[in-house]
Amino acid sequence: MDLHLLNDTPTDVERAAVDALLGPPGGNGSGPGHGRDQLLPALHAVNDRVGWISRGALNHICDRLSIPPAEAYGVASFYALFALRPRPPRVVHVCDDLACRARGSAQLCAALESVEASGDVMWLRSPCLGVCERAPAALAFQAGDPARTQLLAPASEKSIVDMVVSGPADGDQEPSARDSVPQAGEASLRLLRRIGAVDPESLDDYRAHGGYLALRRALEIGPAEVVRQVSEAKLTGRGGAAFPTGRKWEATAGQPAQPHYLVCNADESEPGTFKDRVVMEGDPFAVIEAMTIAGFATGCSRGYLYIRGEYPRAVRRLRNAIEQARERGLLGRSILGREEFDFDVEIRRGAGAYICGEETAIFNSIEGYRGEPRSKPPFPVEQGLFGKPTVVNNVETLINVPLILTGGGAEYARTGTADSTGTRLFCLSGNVRRPGVYEVPFGTTLRQLLDLAGGVEQDRQLRAVLLGGAAGGFVGPDQIDLPLSLEAVREAGTTLGSGVVLVFDDTADLPALLLRIAAFFRDESCGQCVPCRVGTVRQEEALQRLVRNRGDGADDLALLREVGRAMRDSSICGLGQTAWNAVESAVDRLGAFTARSPGTGGPAHVDD
Amino acid sequence: MQPSHEKPRKRELDPERNHHCESRRGGTVDLGLPRRLVELTLDDRTVSAPEGSTILDACTALGIEVPTLCWGDTLRPRNACRMCMVEVEGSRTLVPACSRRITDGMVVRTDSERTRHSRKLVLELLGSSADLSTTPEVAGWMAEYGADPGRFGPPAPGEDRDERPPGEHEAPDGSVAATVHQPAKVDNDLYVRDYGKCILCYKCVDACGEQWQNSFAIAVAGRGFDARISTEFAAPLPESACVYCGNCIEVCPTGALSFKTEFDMRAEGTWDESRQQRTTTVCTYCGVGCNVTLHTQDNEIVRVTSPHDSSVGHGNLCIKGRFGWQHVQNREPRP
Ligand SMILES: Cc1cc2nc3c(=O)[nH]c(=O)nc-3n(C[C@H](O)[C@H](O)[C@H](O)COP(=O)(O)O)c2cc1C
Ligand code: SF4
Ligand code: SF4
Ligand code: SF4
Ligand code: FES
Ligand code: FES
After folding, report:
1. Is the CB of B242 under 6 A from ligand 3?
2. CA distance B103 to B38
3. Which of A278, A536, B131, B316 lies 20 to 30 Å from A295, alpha-carbon distance?
């Protein structure tokens, strides 16, 4: 194919950044990868090195990978972490999403607005950075060789201004993952039991804490028995849709087409979700062991771990875990000496696109295409990554599997309720006294969970809880005794989603939160289908009218319902289908716009 | 079949077509075996259709009208516009008729309150954001489904949309409805890209890319409402990989892509389809023998299309067949 590149050449630095990833050019295609699936890593390489992607750099990538430049541009311009225009090497992303708003992100932005502009640094508002338990949060990127990143959470006005001025520090400045688990050390913990107790950088320590017993067990009993135990345990997906994992595995294992792929979904971009990050930072080997078992059970020899681009520490720890596991023969060929079992894991970094957590969008993203969801059927178990049978599982789902194997499926199913077995990780954030990841059996009530987290601050009243994230829904104080099981929340017309429990007290500005949610969906829609692409825009506009008391409120509520219904009925994927859930629940359950009074009394607050 | 620009396209129940498309992609060999019949219920009628047919194929065979925009008779379904949504029993959401294959015992409703609501909203969302004045059929559908795009507020004025970054936007105030209105791109003598009319159906991208032309001059760039059809870095067409085959114009359902002649005549107010004649003939430039349909107004060729059912090119032409007809007109090129 004649690529017909624009007439721009890369700088030496850009060229070197790409060639460091792909190997020297002209290397007869024997480098680590020369396929289209190297596009996202190559874009990262340039963006990390220079801070933005120039025409010359894109040309060089296209030339190396034989990708038409219009398509590569289409891919690069899909991701929020990439810039296609000159940008300073230091970029600070300041979260102004729900939990951070409840914890003062507005003051951070105000403080930054007073800092004088310079050519070397800029700051941006960001959607949820996945550290809501330490809100308000900011993440700084410094392009270079090597690129540096630093997460600042909780950030103060002073620390964020310092960060902007002096850039990300060297080395890991973050508190231990243990600090994100208020229950750490308690005997009741299962999924979180090692966090804080185990050295996340050490395979030996992981083994000393029971690591890799489950993989041995799996190899003993064989793939079919592993799948059977997972089915008997009635494990359901924790990524949002709660699909039975055993059924998914069985369907994939039985596909004649080869090879099969495993994708561990660590994109975790649902606002208010941070449990997978805490697990990956605090117990990374558990994720790798669980992936290995899943690969064994479903006949995959290759697994991809797709992790959101805003999780630098988790990436570092997982890379280390993968390297150590390889060195010890726990990844690679003939694992644990078993001749016919080869399995390896490749990390793929996302680049700022919530939609890439959708199970088919993730395939396109890995393959080097725009992260647009595919139409189903065919389902991933039949035609997934690279068109082959693929299992996609969430991080939390996977780390349940070792527990199932060591204790047995039937034993596992004794925890929780009849239809929701096991424990669940919940992400508590917002106006609670002890935010963090909590592990409780399914069926625990919302009240019990809030009590664990210390409830709202003294002298404050609970106003609302956002359950399940932006794609979930609000519940009011009247529903505080709701048992958190799949069946109970379904009956109550809501969802547990990715385990978000975002708490708002009576200081919360409900209309402003709804505006933020609407803006999030408008920003994160991939743009493929009309109901979502335009519907999310019309939703935000109508909400703005309601909040600003423009026009007749009744008309706009009716409009929201009609648009919401079409998005739910006719969007391609879960993003568009759920984009109206939270707003609807706030209108119906919390009376957000009843009698035209902005939710909390007081003047409507508007962010311009 | 008629070019997609014009009157209702005639669709035939032709499972081979889908098969054919796939064979170009995946290299499966079409053995042409007779197909098993699948029985389903379509609007309370029990019918059977060959396995592999889509719901749309089955509807067309029965004469049931399902509106479509992004579906193209020569392209693989993209499922993007969601105009063709129908109800299928047991499905939580509506499903796209244009791509969903029929299965045994499927119960389909094409004209329920739910499908009508969805179509009305899709029309309103499109009509309020893009200029549909040259999209055939849409005015009729608007009336049929009671769509009123104006209820989202007055349209926002046009502006350049080429460099909108993903994941951020300026908060609206609700006083106007955001649109894709923007200046038309006139950067060559042959055709114009007027993306204020674009509904992002992906057809031009597919026609330019692996499904037909293999030029890959254009792709979708950006994200969400800011997604748009673009060359790399929005470079002008003459700098891109475009070979001016015009196959993208052939498939564009909205007139966002049009011959420069048509664009100019519309601007002058002289474009008048009722005075146009069409003559289908064979292109004489080379031995391939593509069919060309010459659209003439006042004895001048104003546009060239190609019949989609032609076994030679399936509606595709090259620059010569599409644009190389100045020499047959005894006049100076248009100023
Ligand atoms: C817009 C959207 C975003 C999603 N993001 C994630 C995510 O970040 N992580 C995740 O595990 N699942 C996410 N999902 C759910 C996945 O599509 C899929 O159901 C899940 O990864 C399957 O794994 P599980 O069965 O283990 O839950 C998302 C779904 C949608 C529609
Ligand atoms: S629903 Fe939204 S995110 Fe999903 S495919 Fe459609 S436009 Fe893309
Ligand atoms: S004229 Fe042909 S090559 Fe140019 S953009 Fe259209 S389809 Fe592609
Ligand atoms: S220009 Fe035409 S063919 Fe291309 S996406 Fe827009 S409406 Fe579709
Ligand atoms: S990190 Fe800010 S809301 Fe999650
Ligand atoms: S015609 Fe079916 S989705 Fe567009």
Report:
1. yes
2. 6
3. A278
Residues whose CB is less than 8 angstroms from the CB of residue A209 and which lie 6 or more positions away in sequence, other chains included: A194, A197, A198
What DSSP line would sit under A168-234, residue for residue?
Answer: PPSS--SPPGGGG-TTTT-TT-STTTTTTTS-TT-HHHHHHTTTTHHHHHHHHH-HHHHHHHHHHTT
Residue B32: the pLDDT is 61
For the complex shown, is ipTM > 0.90?
yes
**Which residue from A minimizes the CA distance to B214?**
A1
8 Å CB contact between B166 and A80: yes
Interface list for A 552-571 with B (CB within 8 A) = 559, 562-563, 565-566, 568-571
- Surface-to-core class of residue A133, CB atoms within 10 Å of its CB (0-12 exposed, 13-18 middle, 19+ buried): buried
Confidence of residue A570 (pLDDT cuts 50, 70, 90): very high
Q: Which residues have a Cβ under 8 Å from the Cβ of B110 and sit 6 or more positions away? A: B42, B43, B59, B64, B66, B86, B87, B97
Q: Which CATH architecture has domain A203-413?
A: 3-Layer(aba) Sandwich (3.40)
Q: Pick A510-590's CATH classification: 1.20.1530.20, 1.20.120.80, 1.20.1440.230, 3.30.540.10.
A: 1.20.1440.230
**How far is residue A94 CA from its own chain's centroid?**
17
Domain boundaries A423-505, CATH class: alpha beta
The answer to whether residue B137 is domain-embedded is: yes
Please give the pLDDT value at position B31: 55
CB A561 within 8 A of CB A489: no
| B219 touches A: beta carbon within 8 Å | yes
> How do strand A121-126 and strand A90-95 relate by DSSP bridges?
parallel
User: Which residues span the domain enclosing B228?
Assistant: 180-328
Residue B187 has pLDDT above 70, yes or no: yes
- Choosing from B68, B204, B228, B249 the residue with most ligand 4 atoms within 8 A of its CB, the one to mutate for a pocket test is B204
| Six-digit token string for B113 | 């309150």
**What SS3 class is residue A31?**
coil
Q: Residue A45 — φ and ψ, nearest 5°? A: -60, -45
CATH no. for A90-166: 3.40.30.10
pLDDT digits (tens, 9 = 90+) for A304-358: 999 999 999 999 999 999 999 999 999 999 999 998 899 999 999 999 999 999 9
Instruction: Select the residue from B87, B109, B125 to test the A interface by mutation, using most A Cβ atoms within 10 A.
Output: B125
Closest Cα to residue A279, out of A207, A362, A164, A196? A196
- Write down the pLDDT at residue B310: 86
- What is the secondary structure of A398-434 as a DSSP string? HHHHHHHHHH-HHHHTTSB-SSSBSEEEEEEEES-SS
Q: What is the pTM of this model?
A: 0.94
Residue A256: both structure tokens together: 């004649």
Which is more confidently placed, A606 or A478? A478
Burial of B21 (C-beta count, 10 Å sphere; 0-12/13-18/19+): middle
Task: With beta carbons less than 8 A apart as the criterion, state whether A231 and A247 touch.
Answer: yes
- The reported pLDDT for the residue numbered B329 is 66
Q: What is the DSSP string of B116-158?
A: HHHHHHHHHHHHHHS--TT-TTHHHHHHHHT--GGGG-SBPPP
Residue B97 shares a structural domain with residue B191: no
Residue B6, pLDDT above cutoff 80: no
The dihedral of CA B157, B159, B164, B169: what is its sign?
Answer: negative
Ligand nearest to the CA of B211: 3
| Average pLDDT estimate for B280-304 | 93
Domain of residue B302, CATH code: 3.30.70.20
- Residue B2: inside a domain, yes or no? no
From residue A379, how far is each of A187, A249, B288 by CA, in Å?
40, 13, 41
At residue A605 the predicted structure's pLDDT band, cuts being 50, 70 and 90, is: very low
Q: Of the candidates B167, B175, B221, which has its C-beta nearest A80's C-beta?
A: B167
